[in-house]
Give the backbone structure.
Amino acid sequence: MTSTVSRGARRTALVTGASSGIGEAYARHLAARGYDLILVARRQDRLAKLADELARTHGVEAEALAVDLTEEAGLGKVEERIARAGDLDFLVNNAGFGTRGLFFKADVEEQDRMHRLHVLGVVRLCYAALTRMVTRGKGSVVNVSSVAAFAQSPGNASYCATKAWMNSFTEGLYLDLAAFGSPVKVQVLCPGYTLTEFHDATGIGRDHIPAGWWASAEDVVAASLRGLSRGKLFVVPGLRYRFYVFLIKVLPGFVVRSLALQIRGKVRR
Ligand SMILES: NC(=O)c1ccc[n+]([C@@H]2O[C@H](COP(=O)([O-])OP(=O)(O)OC[C@H]3O[C@@H](n4cnc5c(N)ncnc54)[C@H](OP(=O)(O)O)[C@@H]3O)[C@@H](O)[C@H]2O)c1
């Protein structure tokens, strides 16, 4: 599909982690809606190829910004790009990764990088975008979290904790915006298992997870954008996962922890 957008009506979106998976799916959905794109991740070749394809197919402007968001210099470049965009309409904080292993057995540097990416990076980019969006009185921010935010599981302490932080932080932003009377929208997207490169990058197999628990990145992003148009703060794609989150919320904590130990135990055996 090719679409041409007049200069005056142009809108710009910045998507982190756009070189694969859910981030790439956001880039595709937003380009189809006429957004100019700033695509952020470390793999320049992937970003440049996607930017070229989306610019050709949808008649939008698309650029690749290759940075490592766990590094101060990389984060600074993205903040500077947001400042230069002036009128950023849409920010998707999606870049993320998983780790394997019990906290005290895992590589501490990797745990540190995860907190930089999922927590500090999100704080800094939300600040860079929201200070300007609030002044202009328009814009949207989506933070990509996980259903892992709702309960801890063995071998996932930092992942679950950083995603739980993301849920709480985004809810705080929502309340701040509402208290200020701002129409700027925020959402925290909490997907379940999604078919992307996430599990390959983490070195986790997919075989132990039944087929019905997997969603496509396209469907997850479609649910996010539908939720955003309805002003939904928390979006959990898929009935199965909404029921799972409901159970976690109503069951006593000791039952949830006992189930987590049983499920993880089975996975390991
Ligand atoms: N897949 C799932 O089952 C699932 C479930 C729930 C939540 N999520 C969340 O969804 C988000 C997207 O993951 P995905 O499933 O699409 O996995 P993915 O295909 O592995 O994509 C992860 C993206 O993050 C980027 N990234 C990783 N580290 C980065 C860094 N230091 N600096 C900049 N970019 C970085 C990667 O690009 P480069 O390698 O090119 O930097 C890639 O574009 C993550 O936040 C993840 O926690 C995934």
Observations:
- The chain has one domain: 7-242.
- The mean pLDDT is 94.
